[in-house]
Protein backbone atom coordinates (compact mmCIF):
# COMPACT_ATOMS: atom_id res chain seq x y z
CA UNK A 1 0.00 0.00 0.00
CA UNK A 2 1.44 3.33 -1.09
CA UNK A 3 0.84 6.87 0.06
CA UNK A 4 1.90 10.48 -0.45
CA UNK A 5 2.77 12.83 2.38
CA UNK A 6 2.32 16.56 2.96
CA UNK A 7 4.76 18.12 5.40
CA UNK A 8 3.84 21.62 6.61
CA UNK A 9 7.13 23.45 7.22
CA UNK A 10 6.15 27.12 6.96
CA UNK A 11 5.92 27.98 10.66
CA UNK A 12 8.49 30.32 12.19
CA UNK A 13 8.52 28.58 15.57
CA UNK A 14 8.48 31.68 17.78
CA UNK A 15 8.37 29.57 20.95
CA UNK A 16 11.70 28.05 19.95
CA UNK A 17 13.26 31.51 20.09
CA UNK A 18 15.76 30.68 17.33
CA UNK A 19 15.17 33.75 15.19
CA UNK A 20 14.51 31.55 12.16
CA UNK A 21 12.45 28.58 11.05
CA UNK A 22 12.99 25.96 13.77
CA UNK A 23 13.04 23.19 11.15
CA UNK A 24 16.34 24.56 9.90
CA UNK A 25 17.95 24.08 13.31
CA UNK A 26 20.37 21.17 13.39
CA UNK A 27 20.40 17.89 15.31
CA UNK A 28 23.78 16.21 15.09
CA UNK A 29 24.70 18.49 12.20
CA UNK A 30 21.58 17.77 10.12
CA UNK A 31 18.54 20.10 9.91
CA UNK A 32 15.41 18.91 11.71
CA UNK A 33 13.44 19.05 8.46
CA UNK A 34 15.93 16.73 6.75
CA UNK A 35 15.69 14.23 9.62
CA UNK A 36 11.92 14.20 9.14
CA UNK A 37 11.97 13.89 5.36
CA UNK A 38 14.51 11.06 5.50
CA UNK A 39 12.04 8.82 7.32
CA UNK A 40 9.67 9.00 4.35
CA UNK A 41 12.48 9.03 1.78
CA UNK A 42 13.56 5.62 3.08
CA UNK A 43 10.04 4.17 3.03
CA UNK A 44 9.37 2.27 -0.19
CA UNK A 45 5.62 2.83 0.25
CA UNK A 46 6.01 6.62 0.04
CA UNK A 47 5.59 7.80 -3.55
CA UNK A 48 5.91 11.55 -3.06
CA UNK A 49 6.55 14.32 -0.55
CA UNK A 50 5.09 17.83 -0.81
CA UNK A 51 6.53 20.59 1.39
CA UNK A 52 4.47 23.62 2.44
CA UNK A 53 7.09 26.30 3.09
CA UNK A 54 7.45 30.00 3.79
CA UNK A 55 8.52 31.91 0.65
CA UNK A 56 11.58 33.23 2.52
CA UNK A 57 12.73 29.64 3.12
CA UNK A 58 12.22 28.33 -0.40
CA UNK A 59 15.77 28.71 -1.65
CA UNK A 60 17.18 27.16 1.52
CA UNK A 61 14.76 24.24 1.46
CA UNK A 62 15.43 23.53 -2.20
CA UNK A 63 19.16 23.56 -1.49
CA UNK A 64 18.70 21.07 1.37
CA UNK A 65 16.65 18.75 -0.82
CA UNK A 66 19.35 18.80 -3.47
CA UNK A 67 22.26 18.47 -1.05
CA UNK A 68 20.78 15.51 0.82
CA UNK A 69 19.43 13.93 -2.40
CA UNK A 70 15.84 13.80 -1.16
CA UNK A 71 14.46 12.56 -4.44
CA UNK A 72 10.90 11.96 -3.28
CA UNK A 73 10.28 15.66 -2.63
CA UNK A 74 8.17 16.38 -5.67
CA UNK A 75 6.58 19.70 -4.84
CA UNK A 76 6.93 22.97 -2.95
CA UNK A 77 3.96 25.19 -2.11
CA UNK A 78 3.86 28.40 -0.13
CA UNK A 79 2.22 28.24 3.27
CA UNK A 80 -0.69 30.37 4.36
CA UNK A 81 -1.56 32.37 7.48
CA UNK A 82 -2.56 29.24 9.40
CA UNK A 83 -1.21 25.70 9.27
CA UNK A 84 -4.56 24.65 7.84
CA UNK A 85 -4.17 27.06 4.92
CA UNK A 86 -0.70 25.69 4.20
CA UNK A 87 -1.95 22.10 4.07
CA UNK A 88 -4.91 23.07 1.88
CA UNK A 89 -2.53 24.76 -0.57
CA UNK A 90 -0.49 21.57 -0.71
CA UNK A 91 -3.49 19.27 -0.90
CA UNK A 92 -4.76 21.03 -4.01
CA UNK A 93 -1.51 20.19 -5.80
CA UNK A 94 -1.30 16.50 -4.85
CA UNK A 95 -2.16 14.30 -7.82
CA UNK A 96 -2.60 11.00 -6.01
CA UNK A 97 -6.08 9.63 -5.30
CA UNK A 98 -5.11 7.09 -2.66
CA UNK A 99 -3.92 7.68 0.89
CA UNK A 100 -2.58 11.09 1.91
CA UNK A 101 -0.56 11.58 5.09
CA UNK A 102 -0.06 14.91 6.83
CA UNK A 103 2.97 15.04 9.11
CA UNK A 104 4.52 17.84 11.15
CA UNK A 105 7.99 18.74 9.95
CA UNK A 106 8.94 19.18 13.61
CA UNK A 107 8.35 15.48 14.41
CA UNK A 108 11.54 13.79 13.17
CA UNK A 109 11.19 10.61 15.25
CA UNK A 110 8.17 8.91 13.70
CA UNK A 111 8.93 5.24 13.01
CA UNK A 112 8.32 3.61 9.64
CA UNK A 113 6.62 0.68 11.38
CA UNK A 114 4.07 3.13 12.82
CA UNK A 115 3.56 4.68 9.39
CA UNK A 116 2.92 1.24 7.91
CA UNK A 117 0.25 0.43 10.49
CA UNK A 118 -1.28 3.87 10.00
CA UNK A 119 -1.57 3.47 6.23
CA UNK A 120 -2.99 -0.04 6.54
CA UNK A 121 -5.68 1.19 8.92
CA UNK A 122 -6.46 4.22 6.77
CA UNK A 123 -7.05 1.92 3.80
CA UNK A 124 -9.78 0.24 5.84
CA UNK A 125 -11.23 3.15 7.81
CA UNK A 126 -10.63 6.11 5.49
CA UNK A 127 -9.27 8.26 8.32
CA UNK A 128 -6.68 7.24 10.94
CA UNK A 129 -4.44 9.15 13.33
CA UNK A 130 -1.44 8.32 15.50
CA UNK A 131 -1.86 8.87 19.25
CA UNK A 132 -0.57 7.77 22.65
CA UNK A 133 -2.51 7.29 25.90
CA UNK A 134 -2.35 10.22 28.29
CA UNK A 135 0.06 9.53 31.15
CA UNK A 136 -0.64 12.44 33.47
CA UNK A 137 -3.66 13.19 35.64
CA UNK A 138 -5.93 15.63 33.80
CA UNK A 139 -7.88 18.45 35.41
CA UNK A 140 -10.60 20.66 33.96
CA UNK A 141 -9.72 24.22 34.95
CA UNK A 142 -11.71 27.47 34.69
CA UNK A 143 -10.40 30.89 35.72
CA UNK A 144 -7.43 29.32 37.45
CA UNK A 145 -9.53 26.99 39.59
CA UNK A 146 -9.91 23.21 39.20
CA UNK A 147 -13.49 22.25 38.34
CA UNK A 148 -13.02 18.50 38.13
CA UNK A 149 -10.63 15.62 37.51
CA UNK A 150 -11.06 14.19 34.02
CA UNK A 151 -11.17 10.43 33.60
CA UNK A 152 -7.79 9.65 32.05
CA UNK A 153 -8.38 6.21 30.54
CA UNK A 154 -10.27 7.63 27.56
CA UNK A 155 -7.81 10.47 26.84
CA UNK A 156 -5.17 10.22 24.12
CA UNK A 157 -2.46 12.69 23.08
CA UNK A 158 -2.73 13.17 19.32
CA UNK A 159 0.36 13.15 17.13
CA UNK A 160 1.08 13.02 13.42
CA UNK A 161 1.10 11.56 10.81
CA UNK A 162 -2.61 11.61 10.20
CA UNK A 163 -3.79 9.56 7.22
CA UNK A 164 -6.87 9.92 5.03
CA UNK A 165 -8.34 8.91 1.71
CA UNK A 166 -7.46 11.79 -0.58
CA UNK A 167 -11.04 12.51 -1.61
CA UNK A 168 -12.24 12.53 2.00
CA UNK A 169 -9.52 14.93 3.16
CA UNK A 170 -10.11 17.28 0.23
CA UNK A 171 -13.85 17.32 0.93
CA UNK A 172 -13.17 18.14 4.59
CA UNK A 173 -10.85 21.01 3.66
CA UNK A 174 -13.29 22.38 1.10
CA UNK A 175 -16.08 22.46 3.69
CA UNK A 176 -13.83 24.10 6.27
CA UNK A 177 -12.87 26.78 3.74
CA UNK A 178 -16.51 27.39 2.83
CA UNK A 179 -17.43 27.70 6.51
CA UNK A 180 -14.36 29.79 7.45
CA UNK A 181 -13.63 27.14 10.07
CA UNK A 182 -10.16 26.65 11.55
CA UNK A 183 -9.66 23.28 13.23
CA UNK A 184 -7.07 22.06 15.68
CA UNK A 185 -5.80 19.34 13.34
CA UNK A 186 -6.69 17.61 10.08
CA UNK A 187 -8.81 15.00 11.82
CA UNK A 188 -11.01 17.71 13.35
CA UNK A 189 -12.00 18.79 9.83
CA UNK A 190 -12.90 15.24 8.85
CA UNK A 191 -14.86 14.81 12.10
CA UNK A 192 -17.10 17.70 10.97
CA UNK A 193 -18.21 15.52 8.05
CA UNK A 194 -19.40 12.89 10.53
CA UNK A 195 -16.71 10.43 9.45
CA UNK A 196 -15.24 8.23 12.22
CA UNK A 197 -11.54 8.56 12.98
CA UNK A 198 -9.58 5.42 13.83
CA UNK A 199 -6.51 5.45 16.08
CA UNK A 200 -3.17 3.69 15.76
CA UNK A 201 -1.07 3.72 18.92
CA UNK A 202 2.30 5.39 18.40
CA UNK A 203 5.13 5.91 20.86
CA UNK A 204 6.26 8.66 23.19
CA UNK A 205 9.48 9.34 21.23
CA UNK A 206 7.40 10.96 18.49
CA UNK A 207 7.66 14.40 20.07
CA UNK A 208 7.06 17.72 18.36
CA UNK A 209 10.00 20.09 18.69
CA UNK A 210 8.43 23.30 19.94
CA UNK A 211 10.57 24.86 22.69
CA UNK A 212 14.35 24.97 23.30
CA UNK A 213 13.96 22.27 25.96
CA UNK A 214 12.66 19.88 23.32
CA UNK A 215 16.05 19.93 21.62
CA UNK A 216 17.59 18.27 24.70
CA UNK A 217 15.00 15.50 24.49
CA UNK A 218 15.67 15.17 20.76
CA UNK A 219 19.39 14.66 21.33
CA UNK A 220 18.61 12.04 23.97
CA UNK A 221 16.28 10.18 21.60
CA UNK A 222 18.94 10.14 18.89
CA UNK A 223 21.51 8.75 21.31
CA UNK A 224 19.08 6.11 22.57
CA UNK A 225 18.28 4.92 19.05
CA UNK A 226 21.94 4.71 18.12
CA UNK A 227 22.56 2.50 21.15
CA UNK A 228 19.71 0.14 20.32
CA UNK A 229 21.08 -2.35 17.81
CA UNK A 230 18.62 -3.32 15.12
CA UNK A 231 16.24 -0.42 15.84
CA UNK A 232 14.98 1.37 12.73
CA UNK A 233 14.87 5.16 12.59
| Major sheet description | 7 strands, mixed
Q: How many strands appear in the DSSP assignment?
A: 11
Give the strand content. Answer: 25-35%
Helix content: 25-40%
Radius of gyration: 18 Å
Order of SSEs: EEEHEHEHEHEEEEHHEH
Give the class from helix and strand content and strand pairing.
alpha/beta
Mean pLDDT level = 93
Shape: globular
Helices, by number, come to 7
CA distance, first residue to last residue:
20 Å
Uncertain segments = none
Please give a structural write-up:
The protein has 7 helices and 11 strands. The chain has 233 residues and is α/β, with parallel strands linked by helices. It has a 7-stranded mixed sheet with strand order 5-4-1-6-10-7-11, sandwiched between helices. A two-stranded antiparallel sheet has the order 2-3. It has a two-stranded antiparallel sheet with strand order 8-9.
How do you describe this structure in short?
The chain is of the alpha/beta class. It has 7 helices and 11 strands. Strand 4, helix 2 (58-67) and strand 5 (73-78) form a beta-alpha-beta unit.
For this entry, give a set of tags.
233 residues, alpha/beta, 7-stranded mixed beta sheet, two-stranded antiparallel sheet, 11 strands, 34% helix, 26% strand, globular
Amino acid sequence: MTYEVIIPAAGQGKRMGAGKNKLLLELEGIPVLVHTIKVFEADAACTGITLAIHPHDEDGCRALVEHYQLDKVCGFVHGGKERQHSIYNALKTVKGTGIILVHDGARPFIRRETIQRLVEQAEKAGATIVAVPAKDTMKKVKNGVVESTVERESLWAIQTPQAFRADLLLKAYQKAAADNYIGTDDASLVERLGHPIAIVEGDYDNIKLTTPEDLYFAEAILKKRKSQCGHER
